[in-house]
Specification:
The chain has about 100 residues and is mostly helical. It contains 7 helices and no strands.
Length: about 100
Amino acid sequence: MIPATYGATMPWIAERLLREESILRRGHWAWIAGLVPLLFANIVGALVLLVALGVWAVGRSTPELVDAWRSTVVTWLRRAGLVAIALTSGAGLVRDGIEILG
């Protein structure tokens, strides 16, 4: 029941929060409100929120890191990292499926 409710409501909430007139787009600190639901998810959500706030604090203290983070090379490295994570997770899922079925 809980996953179905989450799956039904999250797209609607995300769509509302990403609109141009959304509170998340208007205020300087309002983007934090978009991360607050992570606190209710579990300890991983709270850790993600803390990491996001830490990255934000580092970005404010050293603007050069923000420029480096937005560079083309780093963008492609981040994409490659996401692909590697997806492939690793997918391989684990296939392995588990074969173990269950085999």
